[in-house]
Amino acid sequence: MNVADNLRILPATSGAMDWFPLWGNVNVLHTCRSIGLPILLIASVAGCKQPPASRYTPDTESARRGRDAIERVGCAACHEIPGIHWPQGRTGPSLVGFDDFGPIAGSLPNTPENLAAFVRNAPAAKPGSTMPAMPLSEDEARDVAAYLYGLDDE
After folding, report:
1. CA distances to 51, 80, 81, 108 from 90, in Å
2. pLDDT tens digits, one per residue of 18-65
3. Are the C-beta atoms of 84 and 92 separated by less than 8 Å?
4. Strand locations in 12-64 (E)
5. For residue range 74-115, what is the model confidence (pLDDT) as tens digits?
6. Nearest CA to 68 among 140, 151, 142, 152?
7. By CB count within 10 A, which of 30, 68, 74, 75 is most buried?
8. Do residues 103 and 110 touch, judged by C-beta distance below 8 A?
9. Which InterPro entries does this entry report, sorted A to Z (predicted)?
10. Is the peptide bond before 58 cis (omega within 30 degrees of 0)?
11. Which residues contact 121 (CB under 8 A, 6 or more apart)?
12. pTM value surpassing 0.70
């Protein structure tokens, strides 16, 4: 007897769907007898991907200075930024989970150098950007980037 012998196909209306709520749109459901269920569970866990690790590990002190710079220049007037409770602007994109973002402003490779350049002078870093140049020194812009890379959505 092999594993396939332990599987049978049930109609979706059998009530067995209650066992697998994430399979709500599946028309057929495989159920297992005896050894089949443990094998299925082990295979399911083994097949899960680990969440991606953070791309960067920002320096804690730099990130703290970055948060202070964000508050000083008012980035939250346009963006929702975790850790900044007021204001929480909606003109710009939310920065919740920034660590998982793709390209900066949709086109710049998401690197610390590009991010620091963008937050300091977005029109120069990406011509056509609607984000204004911000009154940040180069060091402050790097600190802001450190803070943003620390914004994980998990």
Report:
1. 28, 7, 10, 22
2. 544 554 444 444 554 566 656 655 666 566 666 556 678 889 999 999
3. no
4. 28-32
5. 999 999 999 999 999 999 999 998 888 899 999 999 999 999
6. 140
7. 75
8. yes
9. Cyt_c-like_dom, Cyt_c-like_dom_sf
10. no
11. 133, 134
12. no
